[in-house]
């Protein structure tokens, strides 16, 4: 699919030209670095508070919700990264709509991004009902969105691996969380946290495939108007 230059525009009139593969890298790196920062900072400075649960047994890793939403400066770093990465995510969602001609994929991507922003800025402490609904929407839209993308790009083996990893890690997360609450065994909550990390990281790597989907596409600003050049 080719996009012709806007009427009257030439290559020399392009004032800004950004590779969409670069946008894909930035979009993934922002939450990835924030995620790693929040985990490490919580382990270094909020270890006891971030790893403790109602069971009172020893745990060695914080859950994601604790690491990114319960302490400062972690929660502000995470919120900033999600806010900055959301705009290019919406742009990529629109591009996938153009690429696949699928309204379903567009809606799923928008719901996933919006619910992620919602659960990030509305913590469980501030408003648990809204936070929990955003979390459920995020998980469902992300999972269904993965299958929808796989149907349209069946040749992407990395997407398949990441989808399998995401589902498997999600099942283990539910299992370890339930087991921890029932039996209060030492270290089980740590396994739950590890499973959570895999869910998040596999989701990020899944969406990073946009780097390869749009590696020959550029976003250009021409005479204060926007256009896409090259091809998908």
Automatic annotation (TrEMBL):
Protein localization: Golgi apparatus membrane
Pfam families linked to this entry: Frag1 (PF10277)
InterPro entries assigned to the protein according to its UniProt record, in alphabetical order: CWH43_N (IPR019402), PGAP2 (IPR039545)
Keyword Electron transport carried by entry: no
Keywords: Golgi apparatus, GPI-anchor biosynthesis, Membrane, Transmembrane, Transmembrane helix
Domain spans labelled CWH43-like N-terminal: 21-216
Topology of this chain in the membrane: Multi-pass membrane protein
Regions that span the bilayer: 20-44, 130-149, 161-177, 189-206
Family, per entry: Belongs to the PGAP2 family.
Name of the protein this chain belongs to: CWH43-like N-terminal domain-containing protein
Species the sequence originates in: Sphagnum jensenii
């Amino acid at each position: 699919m080719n996009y012709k230059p806007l009427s009257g525009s030439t290559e020399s009139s392009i004032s800004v030209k950004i590779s969409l593969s670069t946008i894909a890298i930035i979009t993934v790196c922002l939450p990835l670095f924030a995620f790693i920062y929040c985990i490490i900072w919580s382990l270094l400075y909020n270890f006891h508070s971030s790893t403790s649960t109602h069971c009172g047994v020893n745990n060695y890793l914080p859950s994601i919700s604790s690491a990114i939403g319960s302490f400062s400066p972690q929660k502000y770093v995470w919120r900033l990264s999600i806010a900055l990465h959301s705009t290019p995510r919406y742009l990529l969602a629109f591009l996938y709509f153009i690429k696949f001609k699928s309204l379903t994929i567009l809606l799923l991507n928008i719901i996933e991004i919006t619910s992620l922003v919602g659960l990030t800025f509305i913590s469980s402490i501030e408003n648990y009902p809204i936070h929990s609904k955003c979390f459920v929407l995020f998980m469902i839209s992300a999972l269904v969105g993965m299958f929808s993308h796989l149907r349209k790009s069946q040749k992407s083996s990395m997407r398949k691996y990441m989808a399998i990893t995401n589902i498997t890690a999600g099942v283990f997360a539910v299992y370890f969380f339930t087991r921890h609450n029932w039996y209060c065994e030492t270290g089980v909550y740590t396994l739950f946290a590890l499973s959570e990390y895999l869910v998040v990281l596999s989701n990020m790597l899944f969406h990073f495939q946009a780097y390869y989907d749009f590696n020959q596409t550029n976003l250009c600003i021409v005479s204060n108007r926007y256009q896409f050049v090259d091809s998908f």
